Amino acid sequence: MMSKLYKLAALLGDADVNWDDNHLRVVSRLDDSDIERLQLPSAIYSPHGTTNLRPLEPRSTRQLGKIGVCAMEDKALSKSNQAIFHHLKANNNIEIILFGDDMLLNQPIEAWPTCDFLIAFHSDGFPLDKAISYTQLRSPIPCNDLLMQKLLFDRRLCLQILDLLEIRTPKRLEVNRDGGPSIDVNMAQHVYKSVGLKIESSGYGSKPQTLPAVSLINDGNTLLVNGRELHKPFVEKPVNAEDHNIYIYYPTTPLGGGGGRRLFRRIGSKCSEFDPEIAIPRCITEDGTVNSYVYEPLLAADCGQDVKAYTVGASYCLAVTRQSPAVTGIVYRNANGKEIRQVTELTREETDTAAKISVTFGQALCGFDIVRNRGKSYVIDVNGWTSVKDQPAFYGECANVLQQMMIARREQDKLYSTR
Q1: Per-residue pLDDT reduced to its tens digit, 166-180
Q2: At what angle do helices 155-164 and 348-361 cross, to 10 degrees?
Q3: Considering only CA atoms, which of 319, 318, 311, 314 is closest in space to residue 405?
Q4: What does the pLDDT read at residue 188?
């Protein structure tokens, strides 16, 4: 137990960490200079009659109670998340309770602490089903729809939601050998009730009776799936959103070319590498397996940069650019060793997209990726709760919006309870 305390204290720097009542309490001690406030573009979106953000009320009238942070320690104790929690404590007379890995993994949900609000998000090792059972047992006011987080695990389901919202995505071909997205009846009913999407899944994850017809034509430069064509260069993504082994396939021409690029989670200063031997998609080389893939045309990012957006509710979104991993595979860093990312202003369409994604997926804080290609924006991924690195101005704005969302939700619940 003590070794874990020392580890957490090291991660938090000068934070106070102690164990009480079998769960971890964290009080961060960040200097105000570390959380300087800058004026960044903030777009207001008003779905379903909601209004713009209200000014902060005096501290004494903004008591929220207990906020439980139900997430794995390596994510919950990141510098960016601790900065957000610091602002929440500064703005409100509240207690922030971090459940901790031991509590999440080894203790029954009956032993988990009670709280008024719950911030819960998935990362490697997080017991999502257990957390869902906890919310059903204790009924805290959630900041994140945990059932909808399950939907984010399957790229096909996520893309179906984006289609429903009329959000622009790259055209795609799906090679489904697993029977489609694996969901249970309760999840399907929740998605239909939440967003009106009836999920079609043949057998809920069982192997389909009829496998897709897949081949390469035109000298290996065109993928043919059930009669539909996609020309190289194209991107191959596993349907499991947690699998980041993404491949790009390049066309072969009389002048040469061919090969492909492997994308992966950042290792040091590399996030992709060229492989001259990649030519045949895995949906063909892995014939006989249940592995399924989504195929999209490779969109050349304007200026060679992708956009990573972080939306908080329907009212605030920060976006930054980074060098596209499809270009060189090199992570460019500043003098302090941090990846270079520049704040970028969103278009009106991108702002509306951010609000739709946060509201529809039910995530108070939600990250998603954009490729801008020839003046048009395409959403290529939705990530759920995502840490925003080295953007001090974001933390205060995020806490402000979260606070007002919690207050509004509590007032709404009080209204319903009196009817």
Answers
A1: 999 999 999 999 888
A2: 120
A3: 314
A4: 84
Q: Is the predicted pLDDT of residue 135 greater than 60, yes or no?
A: yes
CA angle 342–344–350, rounded 5-degree value = 140
Domain 2-29+38-150 grouped into CATH 3.40.190.10: no
The Cα 236–Cα 244 span in angstroms is 11
- Looking at the predicted structure, is the pLDDT value of residue 51 above 70? no
Where b means 16+ CB within 10 Å and e means fewer, 42-68 reads bbebeeeebeebeeeeeeeebebeebb
Strand order in the sheet with 305-312: 342-343, 316-323, 305-312, 365-373, 376-384
Which CATH homologous superfamily contains domain 173-177+212-297?
Answer: ATP-grasp fold, B domain (3.30.470.20)
Alpha carbon distance 143, 140 (integer Å): 9
Mean pLDDT of the chain: 82
Q: pTM, whole model, 2 decimals?
A: 0.81
- Residue ranges per domain, the chain? 2-29+38-150, 173-177+212-297
Lookup: tokens for 21: 């009542």
